[in-house]
Each structure stands twice: as structure tokens, then as C-alpha cells.
Amino acid sequence: MKAVWAIYRANFREYARNPAVLAFTVIMPLLLAVFLSLIMGNQELFTIDYYLPNMLGISLMWLGVFATAQPLVEQREQKIFRRMAVTPLSRQSMLWGQVLFRVSVGLFQAAVFLIAGRIGFGVRVQGSWFLLLGATVMGALVFVTMGYVLAGLARSQEAAPVIAQPVQMGMMFLSSTLLPAAMLPAGARVVVRAIPLTYVADALRQTISAVPPMFPLWVDFAAMAGWILLFFVISVKLFKWE
Amino acid sequence: MAEHVTPGGLTHIEGMNRQFIEFPPVRNAERGGGVLDALNWAVWAKDLRKRYGDVRAVDGISFGVSPGEVFGMLGPNGAGKTTTIEILLGLRTADSGDVRILGMTHPEDHRRIASVIGAQLQTTGMYPTHTVREMIQLFSDFYAEAAPVDELMDMVGLRDKAGALVKNLSGGQRQRLAIAIALVNRPAVVFLDEPTTGLDPQARRALWDMILSLKASGTTVLLTTHYMEEAEQLCDRVAIVDRGKIAEMDSPAALINKYFKHIAIEFESPPGAEVDAASLRSLPGVANVAADGRKVTLYSSDVPATMASLLGTASHSLKHMVVRQATLEDVFLKITGRSMRQ
Asked: Which domain CATH number covers B95?
């Protein structure tokens, strides 16, 4: 337990002292939400109610890319995990510390978004707080497990962005977070349904601002659970500590 | 405790992994030869082998380190020292061979071993935006009991850097931090992989003192180095490792004595000139000649006679001439035919 907490704090320090990662996981998506709603806000659908949950979804995705995959690859190259393998720290404790830390960053991101939305735009949570908490934790887990898959695919620090950037850019444009799926061509709409961010964002929209749902909420949760399981299984196969 | 002999000839005592083992004193006669009884040694390796593709990185290495001993593995880069240490630490699996650390082995006792040993690896493995104090505290939290952080910082002389970030430390400071981390659990056995590489002479001396005080407190130390002087100063025994094999193993004094009953005369031959080993060997008193590039070493039993005739021959510019006792460096050159720092 002491060791899990030690790993948690260590990861937190590395996160909090890295301004670039803080910017990507919190400030950038929040600014995107504000700008997009200001630019597009005169059309009925594209309000802050639409963009705030969507950009929270994107910030969770960036948690998976910039605060999970990237530091994992870096720390593997810095031989940190290798050094820890010569201590009594177990892999399980290490993993628990890392995942708990990242889920709490997800909760922190949600809190920042909700407070900013409330103060700046008077956005009030329309759905159940309990389901919102569930959607945030599940959404964070989807992208954290994805981060371990990406870190498993990337053999080096240089390879990490090459693999992660197309994935996250593709998801951003094809997940109905920037534009509603209805505005995309029919072929792209099939892809929308295959992307995890679609379900994370839909669940967040439904619980935060009651925007008309794409799917029943239980479908979003089931899809998120499916993606977590899938990413978990793949990461067990792919991810290497050393 | 039930005792039985395994097919490999090892005495294995059931239940030994579940308790601390009191070591019987090792008699000198048992060192070097006879039956290697795994339980008498703090670190014991038998016929370790590891190959990468066609390269035999470790090619049949066997040795034992007595409790409280400082044992050095000496050899050039790529000799197999680091791979051996990594096998002993359980970071790599040997293709074949057997390892006992305080009577325990990998992987079944890995965490138990990890809790009583300390290790400084060549790749230091630290979070760049952690301070020195945070980094030591982090590793302390992995053990049930740990030494006070302040005490560890004092030991390696990093107290005034307590608040400095790892990424802002110099190479030598980082190295010292890695050594402090290796000592957080007050280990019974410490593995140091090239601990003084990258340290300035002053820090190197300080580290030698620290290793000697570890020895004085009964800690077993296994270190690798390619500094001969370091091995001579620190080690009770050294294993000279070359191309994955142990070429020789004994105390530094015994090794020097075994190979060199002579005084070394060292000089540099002029550029372009061929070193004529045969004619040098025929000089009076010369027992052996070693040439490494332009550097020539004569081992003489009669220094005045050798010097007189050497100074009489005009063919040698006697640049950088030194007359000295033989060192481990000479032993290495003699055994392997190569110098250490090529």
C-alpha cells in the first residue's frame, strides 16, 4: 500500500512539474471548448453545452496520449522500471499506483471543466452526478488502457508521437466531438461508431448537458467497458516494462 | 531441516529461503578450489552462460563472494561484467547456470532477494523532475524498513543538493544519488556496476572511503570496474573477466605476485618506428616484453642492467619513461594480450 502511494505521488510530481503535459491535458481542451463555442455558437447545436463535454472527452484522450503513452515510453527509456525491478516493489503495485494516479487526473480534468463551465458559461450538470462520475472514470480508463497499448507499440521515444498522433487526430475528427456525426458523409459515420471517443463523449454530453443522445446511455457504458477490456488484453500482450 | 543433494551436487536445505541465514566463516582453503558450497557464499554463481545471437556475452562464469568481502570484477567494456551482474540481480535470465544470493535464487525468491540487496546500475533510472530527497524517499517507500534520507544524502555528500532536480545534477552527482538509492534498505549485499565511472578524482576517493566503511560494517560488496587502481585499493579479491570468461581470480597482491616478480620499465617508442620485441627481450635482465601500440613495457629482474643497456641503444626515444612495480594493469595485459582501455 505504501509502495502504491509512493508510485502515485511520483507520477503526480512528474505530471504536475511538466507544463507541456498540463497544457495538453487541461488548458488546451478547455480553450478549444471556449473558442469553438464562441465561433460556432450562433448555430443552435454548437454551444458550450455541446463542446464542454466533448472537449472533456478529448482531454481524457490526451490524458491517454500525453500523460500515459508518452511518459511510459520515456520512463521505460530512462530505465526507471528496470531500476525498480531490483526492489521489492511488485509490478502490480507499480501498475496500481500509475493507473490510480491517471484516473485521478481524469477526475481533476472533469472538475476543472465543470467549474470553468459553471463560472464562465453557467453550465449546470443536467444528468446524475453519479453517472457523470462513472462516465469520467470509465472514459479515463478507456484512454489510459489505450495509452498502455500505444506505449507497447512504440519501441522508442521518437516512435511514440508517430504512432499516437494519427490515432488521436483521427479520433478527434471522426468521433462527433468537433462536428456531429450527422454532418459527416455516410462512410465516415460507420467509423464514428467504431471509435471509443464517440461513446466517451456521448456519455459525458448526456450526463453533463443533456444534449440529444446518439446512443442510450447504457450503450455508451457497455462500449466503454468493451474498449477497456479490449485495450487491457492487448496491452498485456504488447506492453513491456523494459 | 531436511537436507538433500540435488543432481547438480548442490546442498539444498529445505526452508532456507524462508529465514535469514547465518553464514559460517569461510576458511581460506575453501576459497578458489574444492566444492563451492552455495550456502557459504553471500553471492554464488556457477557456470553462467548467456549468448546474444552469436555473441557469447557470458561464457561459463563461476565464482563466490564471501560474506563481508569486497569482490571486484575487472575487465574492459563488453567483457560480460554487466550481463553477469544483471543475471545475479534477476534482471536477465541466464541461458544456463545457477545463482544463489544469500542462499536464495531467482525468480522464485526474487522479491526476498530484492529486499536485502542494493544495486547501482549503469543506467541510473531516475525521474528527471524529482529532487534528490524525493528520489531517495521514493525508493525508501518500497522497503519495509529504510535508512533516514538525511543520513543517505550525507553518506554520498549530496546533502546540499537535497532540493536539486535530478535533471539538473551533474553526471557524478547522479552517480552518487544512484549509490545512495542502492543503500536505502541498509542492504546485506551491494552490487555496484562501475560506481566511479564519471566521477572526478575527489569524488572517486570519497566513494572508495564509503565502500571501505560499508565493508567495515560487514556489508558484502560486488563491484565492477575497469580501473585497476580501484580494484587494487578496494577489493579483497578480483576476477579478471575477458570475453565472457574469468581469466584469473585471486587477491590483487597474489595476482601481481603470481605474474610479476619483476619491476616494470615503461616507455613510448617513437611514432612510426617498429617495436623490436625480440631485441628488447635480449637486453640484460629482461624477463618479458609487452607492447601495446607505441607503449612498451619491459619486465626486468635487474633494473640497473636493463636501464644501462636501454639507455645505451639510440634507437629508442625514452619518452614518458617510468619505472614501477607491476600492477593489475600488467596482469591484465599479460593474461589477455590487450590493454584495458582500448
From this structure: 3.40.50.300
